[in-house]
# Entry
Amino acid sequence: MQFTVIQRILGLLLMVFSLTMLPPAMVGWWYGDGAVVAFLDAFAVTLLTGVLCWLPVMKVKREMRLRDGFVVVVIFWTVLGLFGALPLIISDRPSVSVTDAVFESLSGLTTTGATVLVGLDTLPKSILFYRQELQWLGGMGIIVLAVAILPILGVGGMQLYRAETPGPVKDTKLTPRITETAKALWYLYLGLTIVCAIAYWLAGMDIFDAVSHSFSTVAIGGFSTHDASMGYFDSAMIEAIAVIFMLLSGANFGLHFIAWRTQSLLTYARDAEFKTYIGVLSVVAAICVSYLYITATYSIFGSALHHGIFQAVSIGTTTGFTTAAYHTWPGFLPVLLLFLSFMGGCAGSTGGGIKVIRCLLLTKQGLRELVRLVHPNAQIVVKIGRKPMDDRIIEAVWGFFSTYVAVFAVMLLILMAAGYDQVTAFSAVAATLNNLGPGLGDVGSNFAGLNNVSKWTLCVSMLLGRLEIFTLLVLITPTFWRK
# Structure
């Protein structure tokens, strides 16, 4: 392990991250909300820490190895969550504990969207903007951003990219050079954000809300500047725009890149994962709309239609926006939507969950085993589209799924031991491990009422979900540390 290389990169990344404190400070200055000093202090502390880490090893030029990349990713996301909490700790509004500040910071950076803050409508604009900005940075992954700029600073980025990029097939590149791949992803991400903000503004949001919600929409984050989330605007047009951009952001950004480069929408029609993604969301949305109307939860079909579709897409893509208190809906709907979040978005998207491609592979492998019971000697190949999948990939997916279940069970037991009922504990773990946000039971509205043990447990759950479990767990295996 090259600790000097890791220290140098960590210092550089902290210095870069310190710059993210400046835009909220400018917002605070513009609105005169009194939180400017908190952000300037946080900027100074983060920058100074980064400089102190970097100076002793500034002349180290050794190439980073894959193991170093895993360590940098895990350490940086952890440190990022701690330093990201500084403005919330320093600011007088909101007045929160260190635990709550770290929880909120990690929830933003991991694009979970679970919040411990109440009274959002009365908070300083700079604090509200900062929460949205954290989600935007976390959406595509600040590590991928670092991949695009670190070569300029003299540090290679392939190891970071492989350690952080989600999905079972990580080495597929959009362009020959990893730096160009990262830039291509960010151009798409930035372009989608700008178009989303303009659409929100034209639909009736003011500039501040339009920009803020475009950040959390494209990031599949779910933070809002209002306690009522998207329901605050009471606009079918705004909800429709949100649905479109949530669907786009939950799809594979590599697919968007190929469609843009080839200028053909057939790219989406040929992709098995995308078709499954749209198909499952469509079926669940239809079930929600029908059940809401049949049970007279909404007496007007139009209301059942837009609430049902919005919640299905928002929860299914792990965004977490709400237009209604879905956790109070009748029958099986709340649990159905929560289970939908386990699938999550596509690989290579800003969404959370297990990912559609993994669920598709698990289903196909299960069907193969059923056929083998009848035809034990048959040679059956699992295919995605027309492409045969290597058994090594299927084994990795099963390994991920089994580890996911084990981690989920441990987290669930910890929360139940902390005194929470099964529904609250189960949904809290699901909402954080899937990077979803809203849960059921006591965490249906927010996570403020949980005790500190539960909040720290869920902080770990959010990190595990954001780093897709293995990236974090690999560090505790003896094999990783052997030479």
In short: The first strand starts at residue 383 and ends at 384.
